[in-house]
Amino acid sequence: MDFREHQDRAKKNSRIIWFLYILLLLVSSFLIGWTLLVGLNLAELYQPGYEKYGFLDKFLASNRYAFNAKQITTLLGISAIAFIVQGLTTVFGFMKKSNGHKVALAFGGILINEDSAETLEQKQALNIVTEQALAASIPTPSLYLIPEQGINAFAAGKKSDDAIVAITQGAMDNFNRNELSGVIAHEIGHIVNQDIKLNIQISAFVFGFTALFFLARFVFYQAAYNRRMDGRAKLIMFAVATVIGIIGALTVWLGRILQAAMSRQREYLADASAVQFTRYPQGLVQAFEVLENGGKSSKMENPSSKEYAHAMMFGIGGELFATHPPLKERINRIQNK
């Protein structure tokens, strides 16, 4: 496997997806500004004195007003506020998910160290984490054991100094040393490539788009309880709230597609890094084959698993929202087929 070629390809694709994320944020912010301003203009035209004009005339006039010299600044201002609100929500989401230890504990994880390791398998896993971290030239991350029978693993944390690696009991029970080395090296690869921080950023980005739902609800209630607003104007504002909600839903939907696409590229990158650290591609291939051909499951029962599906080594989901490439494709790439 030419892992450096695969690394370069995955990084290039990731940059394209980041560009699409920023573009989606800018477009959604502008659409919110346009919807609010046109809605306000339209509501004004439904006040007494404009009865002779039809809806289409009023709608076109509202758009012309929104883009004239007097209101273009207001349009850009509202769009900027929408951008800032989504940005602040994104920052909140980032801070909420930045502690790797809390993520592991949310899965019921048990910290494994020299004092707490009870079984030969736990001690072996601890040794593998140490040797793979040494191969990758990073501080040794903490190891957590997740009490789940599904075969899976993940890395979490904001930076390599406080990163954690978590493996499920199912992974420890079903993988031999070479296979477990490949799996843990894959997670170490996520840490080295800063995917653990990237995963938090991606989740926060999608979370930031949910701010549009709160904006839609705010517009709805403002119209509902405004006694000075004409009934027809209220209907217009209800429609504006609905449009904002639809924009929010579409933005979150598109964000999740980009999230899944980004996750797939980073999985390829981590696979390539695992080969680089272990210098034994078959270990990772054999681990994949345990799931591909052995009838084993990567499913996790913990409710947090869906939220962190993109961070898992083995994902779940349909074709559109699949956070991981097919195992067969990952095996073929490692074997350079």
How would you briefly describe this protein structure?
It comes from endosymbiont of Bathymodiolus septemdierum str. Myojin knoll. The protein has 337 residues and is mainly alpha-helical.
How does this structure look, described?
The protein has 13 helices and 4 strands. The longest helix has 48 residues, at 231-278. The model has no long low-confidence stretch (mean pLDDT 82). 43% of the residues are buried. It has a 4-stranded mixed beta sheet, sandwiched between helices. It is mainly α and 337 residues long. Helix 7 crosses helix 11 (281-293) and helix 11 packs antiparallel against helix 13 (327-334).
List keywords for this structure.
Zincin-like, transmembrane, elongated, 337 residues, 2 domains, cell membrane, mainly alpha, 4-stranded mixed β-sheet
SSE order and pairing:
Elements (H helix, E strand, L loop, with lengths): L2 H43 L9 H12 L5 H25 L3 H7 L3 E3 L7 H17 L5 E5 L6 E4 L7 E5 H6 L2 H16 L2 H15 L1 H14 L6 H48 L2 H13 L10 H4 L19 H8 L3
Parallel strand pairs: 2-4
Antiparallel strand pairs: 1-2, 3-4
Helix pairs in contact: 1-2, 1-3, 1-10, 3-8, 5-7, 7-10, 7-11, 8-10, 9-10, 11-13
InterPro entries: HtpX_protease, Peptidase_M48
Family: Belongs to the peptidase M48 family.
Pfam family, one: Peptidase_M48
Helix/sheet category = mainly alpha
| Tally of separate domains | 2
Strand content: 5-15%
Relative helix content? 55-70%
Please give the number of β-strands: 4
Distance between the termini: 9 Å
Which sequence of SSEs, written as H and E, runs from N to C? Answer: HHHHEHEEEHHHHHHHH
Q: Give the overall shape, derived from the CA principal axes.
A: elongated
Question: In terms of per-residue confidence, which ranges show pLDDT below 50 for 5 or more consecutive residues?
Answer: none
In the sheet with the most strands, the strands line up as 1-2-4-3
What is the C-alpha radius of gyration, as a whole number of Å?
Answer: 25 Å
Instruction: Describe the main β-sheet briefly.
Output: 4 strands, mixed
> Mean of the pLDDT scores?
82
Determine the number of helices (DSSP H or I, runs of at least 4 residues). 13
Keywords: Cell membrane, Hydrolase, Membrane, Metal-binding, Metalloprotease, Protease, Transmembrane, Transmembrane helix, Zinc
Protein name: Peptidase M48, Ste24p
Cofactor: Zn(2+)
Family: Belongs to the peptidase M48 family.
